[in-house]
Specification:
Radius of gyration: 18 Å
Strand content: 25-35%
Order of helices and strands: HEHEEHEEHEEEHEHEHEEHEH
Low-confidence stretches: none
Number of helices: 9
Bound molecules: ligand 48F
Number of strands: 13
Largest sheet: 8 strands, mixed
Length: 258
């Protein structure tokens, strides 16, 4: 006979154990879009203690909806190499243009990253960072619903060697840091430069170039990198997002090597 209380105990104790084990991380990733997931995949593969926090119920960020809710995405040859490595199947549309079902690729990125050892917490919103001795040193977290409802409930805190802002167009973590601590970023102006209009070719290149440390302990990837350093948008072509996640992972992994 199934005991409902045993089911509740199993869920509560397993969840608390994994949350407690994630209070001191090598890397904390904010945002479960393609760049965050790929960064998590490579960091976990490199043996780093890494967890990803996503405020929504679903993981996958902007991938699920494809282009204007036509749930297909496009990748180019360079980005496809990452999907090949993960064993995902792409269809060639024309030379250099490959397509994938958006639901297939979102769920596969989640599965591959978790299989590699990434821990994912959905429904948790990152409200703020921990700033100690002029270095980003952790995250301030709360339930996504608490943030959405703007309830006055104090958050909890965790420490991380590095934080990755993979929050997409908002670049919410970097924006919050600048807004609250008035710090000088590693950008041309020292501030958030802002995203530019559509140019897929330039945007794809820039999102990878702009993936780097923007303030001690804080890295940016994906669209957040272009929003912070100033780069074009690119729409539903995702090679740059995948490559950006990989670059962020490599740079952070090197940084936190003892
Ligand atoms: O926007 P998103 O998919 O990030 P990305 O990796 O990829 C961008 C593309 O999807 C697309 C594009 C490609 O051509 O331009 O937009 O840069 O995913 C960002 C995720 O971060 C979550 C948000 O819900 C989304 O799933 N997020 C944003 N702010 C927070 C957050 C926050 N404060 N706490 C937790 N999650």
């Amino acid at each position: 006979m199934l005991n409902e209380v045993t089911i509740s105990k199993a869920i509560i104790s397993e969840y608390v154990a994994k949350l407690q084990d994630s209070l001191e991380l090598d890397v904390a990733i904010v945002g479960g879009g393609p760049s965050g997931l790929v960064a998590g995949y490579y960091l976990a593969k490199a043996g780093k203690k890494v967890a990803l926090f996503e405020r929504k119920l679903s993981i996958g960020g902007g991938v699920w909806g494809g282009g204007m809710m036509f749930n297909e995405i496009v990748v180019q040859a360079e980005g496809k190499s990452i999907l090949d490595e993960m064993g995902l199947e792409c269809k060639q549309f024309e030379t250099g243009y490959y397509t994938l079902d958006a639901v297939y690729v979102s769920s596969a990125l989640v599965f591959k990253a978790m299989q590699a050892g990434l821990r994912i917490f959905n429904l948790i919103s990152v409200e703020d960072v921990v700033l100690k001795s002029e270095k980003v040193s952790g995250l301030v977290i709360n339930w996504g619903a608490v943030s959405t409802l703007q309830w006055h409930i104090d958050p909890l805190t965790l420490y991380a060697g590095c934080v990755l802002d993979a929050t997409g167009h908002d670049a919410a973590i970097t924006r919050g840091l600048v807004g609250k601590a008035h710090v000088k970023l590693n950008t041309a102006t020292g501030g958030m430069i802002g995203e530019m209009p559509m140019d897929a070719e330039a945007g794809e290149r820039q999102t990878v170039e702009n993936t780097r440390e923007v303030y001690p302990g804080l890295y940016v990837s994906g669209m957040a990198a272009n929003a912070v350093f100033g780069g074009y948008r690119m729409g539903p072509v995702f090679g740059g997002m995948l490559l950006s996640g990989k670059k962020a992972a490599m740079e952070m992994a090197e940084r936190i090597t003892p």
